[in-house]
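Dear colleague,

Thank you for sharing your sequence with our group. We've completed the structure prediction you requested, and as agreed, I am returning the results in plain text so they can be pasted directly into your records. Please verify that the sequence below matches your submission; if there's any discrepancy, let me know and we will rerun it promptly.
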Amino acid sequence: MARTTSRQPRKQRKARYNAPNHTRGRFLSAPLSPELRGKYNIRRARVVKGDTVKVLRGDYADDEGIVDSVDAKACKVIVHGVMVIKADGTEVPRPIDPSNVQITKLNLKDKLREERLGGGE
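Please find the predicted structure tokens below.
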């Protein structure tokens, strides 16, 4: 988030909405499961496409699914299986805030990500 000295909610929101793209990745982090936390010695990681997450809050709490996409502009993640039914009967994906999910399995196909996480034991 942009460096602010204000504690006013309106200025905090403005800084978040107007944050540059290279700092928005910080908003896309989610807590790790206790098993992953013990393995990598970190509490949070950025959510990427292919991670398996568990929804912690809302109507879909305790549902688990694979991340289909990450919307960096809106700071939301799309989880496979989390759908909402529109008035005309069609199902559309329900965007979820990354703070409301827990990463249960990491997508480690990218070797750079594995190096950043510390590679485990």
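Summary note from our side: Residues 9-17 form the longest helix (9 residues).

Kind regards,
the structure core
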